[in-house]
Amino acid sequence: MRITGTGHASLRIDTAAGSILCDPWVNPAYFASWFPFPDNSLLDWETLGDCDYLYVSHLHRDHFDAEHLKRFVSKKATVLLPEFPTSEMRDELEALGFTRFLETKTEQVHELDGGLKIMIQALTSPTDGPIGDSSLWVEYDGIRVLNQNDARPTDLTTFNALGHVDVHLLQFSGAIWYPMVYELPEAAKRAFGKQKRDRQFDRTFRYIDDLRASHVVPIAGPPCFLDDELWQFNDIFGDEGNIFPDQWVFQEEYAKVGGTNSTVLLPGSVMTVTAGSADTTHPVDPAEFFAHKVEHLEEMRERKRPMIEAAKATWRHPEVDVLKEMQRRIEPLLDESVYLAKGVGGPVRFDLVGYDGESVESIVVDFPEKQVRVYNDEKVRYRFRTDRALVEHLLHIGEVDWVNSLFLSCRFSAARIGQYNEFVYAFFKCLSEERLQYAEGWYAEQKPDAEDIKLGDWIVQRRCPHLKADLTRFGIVDGKTLTCQLHGWKFDLASGRCLTSVGHELRSRPAGTPAPGAETVTVPADGE
Fold first, then answer.
1. CA 431 – CA 330 distance, rounded (Å)
2. Residues annotated as region Disordered (predicted)?
């Protein structure tokens, strides 16, 4: 089996039974904010795109590059389609000209022509990607590869059960706007960033330890930021709070915990995998490349500057009446929302900065009152500030996912009173009838976990109230605080209250306190 690195989360897997191109991303994403690094735009995409199978893990625009898919990927390729709850991915691919689809069943092995086997695990929480994320397992002639990309399954048991994995490719770096955009003192922002950076590595190392593959490949990040307005987000300033460490930093951090089996793939690197080895060739020496990271970024910034300026020229749509259009599109969804509206629980304010860079129009999405209106000087818990032109553009193109556009662009600032609220972002990810109905149904179906476990001196429910991670594996108790390390969510064990977000109460009690009817499994606390 041969694995060719093609940048970010993208790779091509070649076997004698066929080739699979995964997540090809080349063009800038999220309002021209994110670019792949190292640059992959000069690869021979005509050849790389002539593949037998195409796999797109999810619809985030650093994985689903519509322009590139349309231009460079063979329409004869069979799309390996994850089993997502909506038809959006298939609809978008069909609009690009793809006609051949294998609609996979999640966690079911499918045998393709020539003995090539694949299995896709689909994650379907409203918080997984835009309505879904996935991982791809591939086997040919006894060689197994898991392309986990940036999916976050609660565990890797399903893949372990299929046999020893030779190569494990997974995310290690940040892919979010927190905490950089928050209006916080720099010291606080740095501290929160360091916590997140540490959690990212901890989560990655746990996945690696779970699977115990022969070889590990860090992928799916980080992006680079080439616009002068966003340049400070690149991890080139020695900031321990930067959440975008690169692949070479991963190598160094992995070595600190005893990791010796990782390989960095540059765009154009080729890993040849056999039953007993994996030999990799590179277009340039990775250590030398990352030693000159700043120079590479500066060269890319100048080369891509016209592309960024051309994108900016398309955003303004003064003909759009933002208030009226937000009312037209969002108020019907507010009327239908029960769980998301209740979860947000208050008004969300958008401060829109005018073309002059000074004037501000404030609009409130009032979830309790189910209306969009002009801000009336009331207190709000959640506030976003961005350029009016960006919201004009979202409304002009009918964007149904403001997370997969505005928020991931990092072209905004945010402030909040109190905890993180996942329902705010879940709603603005679901600005369509289909998405909203799915998200409402998903939250309605969530049931309390009946099984309890013992962690340290506490009895708690086995599954995290957030996204059902197994706390026997991801739960860490420190005094009266439990942390689920899958996403870093914290709970007060004495009260069961979630310390990270609104809602998501944990069932917990001191060990020794009876709980009639609960099944108890004793496991040691993490680190014991």
1. 7
2. 509-528
pLDDT of residue 129: 80
Q: What distances in angstroms separate CA 519 from CA 11, 454, 515, 516, one per listed residue?
A: 44, 11, 9, 9
3-class SS letters over 225-246: CCCCCCHHHCCCCCCCCCCCCC
Whether 272 contacts 279, CB under 8 Å = yes
Digit-coded pLDDT (tens) for 246-302 = 999 999 999 999 999 999 999 999 999 999 899 999 999 999 999 999 999 999 999
pLDDT tens digits, residue range 141-167?
Answer: 999 999 999 999 988 999 999 999 999
Neighbour count for residue 49 (Cβ, 10 Å): 21
The tokens describing 66, both together, are 């519509």
Angle at 443 between CA 200 and CA 204, to 5 degrees: 15
- Give me the residues paired with residue 101 across strands: 79
Cα 349 to Cα 108, 214, 217, 376: the distances in Å are: 44, 49, 41, 10
Residue 393 dihedral angles phi and psi, to the nearest 5°? -65, -45
Q: Which residues contact 393 (CB under 8 A, 6 or more apart)?
A: 31, 314, 315, 316, 317, 399
- Tokens 């792949």 belong to 36
86, HSE (Cβ side, Cα atoms, 13 Å): 24
Spatial neighbors of 480 by CB under 8 A, at least 6 apart, are 492, 493, 494
Sequence-ordered strand ranges (E) for 141-269: 143-149, 167-171, 215-219, 223-224
User: C-alpha 153: how far from its chain's center?
Assistant: 12
Q: Is the dihedral of CA 351, 352, 358, 360 positive or negative?
A: negative
Q: Please give the Cα distance from 65 to 23 (Å, whole number).
A: 8
**Who's near 332: CB < 8 A, 6+ residues apart?**
none
Nearest partner of 350 among 340, 337, 365, 335, judged by Cα: 365
Output the pTM of the full model: 0.89
